[in-house]
Structures are given as C-alpha cells and as structure tokens.
Design a protein that fits this description.
Helix content is 39%, strand content 20%. The protein is flat, with a radius of gyration of 23 Å. The protein has eleven helices and ten strands. A hairpin with a 2-residue loop joins strand 1 and strand 2. By secondary structure, it is α+β, with helices and mostly antiparallel strands. Helix 1 packs across helix 2, helix 1 crosses helix 3 and helix 1 packs across helix 4. A five-stranded mixed beta sheet has the order 4-3-5-10-6. Strands 8-7-9 form a three-stranded antiparallel beta sheet.
Length: 288
Amino acid sequence: MDLDLRKLRYFTAVAEELHFGRAAERLHIAQPVLSRQIRSLENDLGAELFDRDRRGTLLTRAGEQLLEDAVPLLASAQALLRRVKTAAQGTPTLTIGFMPGITLTPATALFTTRHPDVNVRLLRTSWDDQVEVLLDGRADVSVVRLPIDGHGLQVRSLFQEPRVVVLPAGHRLADRASVTIADLASEHLLQDPDAVPEWRDVAEELRGRTRPEVPVIHQVEEKLELVAAGAGIAVIPLSTANFYTRPDVVPLPVEDIGPNEVALAWVASRRSPILHDFAEAAETLGQQ
C-alpha cells in the first residue's frame, strides 16, 4: 500500500485540533469531505484513528502512533520538494538559519571564499522554529540555541555565552550592577520555567501555584515590549540583549545562572559536501 500524503496531512490537522470542524476550516475544505478522507485513511491502514463520541474527538492508540510518525514524515516530504526545486535552479544554494543576536559574518565570509559559486541565503529563526526549519527544508543548516530536540539531527557545539535578565527601566533592581537568582524569586517570568531551571527552583509563583498566564511570544521584540510594560521579566542571551538595546529595558548579569550554549545543527541524514564545509567554517564563531 502506498501512503497518501494528502490524507496524512488531513489526519494531522484533525489530530492536532481534535475537532473535525476546526480542522476542516484550517484545511479550507468541507467537513464531510474531511470525514470521508479520514475514513478512507482508516480503511487503508486497517485501524481506527479516532474515538468519536459525545465527549468529542480523541486519538486512539493507533492514532497517537500515526501522529508521532506523521509529523516528521510530512516535514521530510516538504523538505524533499524544497531541495529538488532549489537544485533545479542550477546554482548551488545553502540556506543558513540563525537565532537573533548571533553574527554569522565570519563563518559565511570564510565559507564563500572557499565556495564562491554557492548562493548563500540567511533565514532568521526563533525559539519556536529553529529546529522546524531544518526538518521541513527551509534551512539546510542552522545556528541554534540549546536546548533543542536533537532527534534526527547532527548537533555540533560552537560556543557558550552568558545570559542576562532584562527588567523594565523603573524596576526595583534596575540600578544594580548584577543580581542573583534569589533576587528574582518573586518576579513573573515571561517564558517557560524549564528554560530557566535556576529560577524555577526558587520561584514563589510556582510554589504558590499563582503563576499568571504567559502570553504566546514568538519574537524577541514581543518579549521586550512586555518587559518594558512591566508585565514580567525575561532571561535572554547577552548577545541578544546587546542587539536589541532600548532605553526602557535594562539588562543585568545574573551571577548564579548557567550560560546559553550555541550550536550548529543539520539533519543527520544529509550528505551534502557544502553543508559539511560550512560546519567547518562555523567553528570560527566560537573563536571570535
């Protein structure tokens, strides 16, 4: 049996929404059409993928397994299409993802002296998509900030850098030369507590289960806007704080917090020579 990727995309939408109506809207198709396609996929696989009753739509065990495998499969299919289209253009191309605050110039300059025929493209990424751009083919290689889910990836450490806390300019700690994690125990953190385990271990709002809801934040600029408005604090890499300077936000060193590690990552199955040549050039990032 050949697996129909279109049906697989339909299944993934329903599995993520757990609602046929919302999934149909997301896919821009009629709900009856979506239902027929899911039933057809279940017939193809010989397994029920969803439990449908008055309580709603839930994944069966088979559905959970399919979702786990379908997401990377669909991303790989998308990556294949992108790479084939790029190759058809005739000019060798290398797309490099990078996180805010990281300067790629030394690495790209060295790489282009060795490969002047390669078209180098840069793609700005975020915490949300720095791995996703590799899996779906938007980037061939990416300079990432750890931790990441390294499943299926080759990850090469480049360097470490300090992290700082960013506070609104009028904050009670803003005039300090540095702070400790204990100084921040009563603050509201505008990010996943697991990203700052040192804060998580002392945070008063976590012990008292009074943590306010954290809005979805996709970009550093959004995070700094919230900090400036007094909505909370954030811990970010020093280079990011230096890149996004603004008068209403103060970055302070945190004495007892671990550094951020920067690494190079690419899909482990890739065998492109220019990709591996860039990995060698990227070692200059850790020598600046």
